[in-house]
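Thread: quick sanity check before group meeting

JM: Hey all, I'm pulling together slides for Thursday and realized we never actually wrote out the predicted structure for the chain we discussed last week. Dropping the sequence here so it's in one place. If anyone has concerns about the input, flag it before I start.
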Amino acid sequence: MAEPTAAPQEIVVVQRPRRADAARNFDALLAAAREAFAEHGADASLEDIARRAGVGIGTLYRNFPTRRHLFESVYAEEVNALAAVAVELADQEPWAALTGWLRRFVEYTVTKRAVREALNGESDIFLACRQSMFDAGGPLLTRAQQAGVARADMSFDDLLRMVSGITSVAFVEEGQRDRVLEIALDGVRARG
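JM (edit): ok, ran it. Output follows.
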């Protein structure tokens, strides 16, 4: 895999409005939806999302005609952000780039879980998003492996599954997830 050097191809589900005020509303709705899904999962209220964004429910439906459009748009936006982070981190030392991207991936998994629950994996967006994540993060692992700082006996899929597993459990205290992630990442480091 080649190292990410250019801006990644964005996954677009619903077209962002061009007018500045409409674009602000669109962005506010996505941010509010991401927050609501993280807090309440797939059952987050659309009315609550509109209220959090400071807009009426009609504005939400003008931008996202169905609940599914909103779920897919939030999911695609998160994956687009992950791809952009990979580009931003590409100039860092290989280990710092890889672990920086994985920390952002952990934040993404909260949204992914809520959206996947709502859509039951029945979306073509998931396939495009999965490929985008592999295209963005895979080269960071490859570069870390080539630099001798990450284990050579693991695939990017292995790494994502490990980190996803960590994020899927409930933790008893603030900061425990981050400690467990650090322990797991220590196992990713190359020895010797």
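AS: nice. The chain has a mean pLDDT of 86. The chain has eight helices and no strands.
JM: adding both to the slides.
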